[in-house]
Amino acid sequence: MITELGEGKYLLLTTFRKDGTPVPTPVWVVPGESDDVIYAWSARDTGKVKRIRRNGDVEIGPCDVRGNPKGASVKAHAALVDDDESDVVRSRISKKYGLFGWFTVFGSKLRRGRTGSVGIRITGAS
C-alpha cells in the first residue's frame, strides 16, 4: 500500500501533538528506493517537522490538494533524513511535479537555503 501512496499526487500526512491531537497535512510525495519507502518534503521550521522529530508515529493516506481524504489511512513511521538525502528528495519532487515542482523547490532554496527544507522518509509501521 505504501508504494501506491508514493505514486499518488498528494499524501495526507497526519502527525500528532504531545496531547495526541492529530494534525493532518497534505504533502507532495515520491516513491522511495524500495516498495516499503516513500518520501515527502517540508520546510524545517514547520509544525509537522517538529512533531516528527519528537515522535515519528504518523498516519498516511491519499488525499486531494486541500487535504480531503480520498481513501483509508494507515499507520506508518516518519523520520527526517540528512541534507544529502534531502537533496535527492527535492530532486525527485522537482521531476515528479514538473515545472511547478521545480519552481517550488527552487523558491524554497532561495528563501531558506539548501538546508532550510528536509526530506521525510516514511515507512510502514512496525
Automatic annotation (TrEMBL):
One Gene Ontology CC term in the entry: cytosol
Key word Oxidoreductase present: yes
Every Pyridoxamine 5'-phosphate oxidase N-terminal domain range: 9-97
SUPFAM superfamilies (UniProt xref): FMN-binding split barrel (SSF50475)
GO molecular function, one term: coenzyme F420 binding
Keyword terms of this UniProt record: Oxidoreductase
Pfam families noted in UniProt: PNPOx_N
Name this protein carries in UniProt: Pyridoxamine 5'-phosphate oxidase N-terminal domain-containing protein
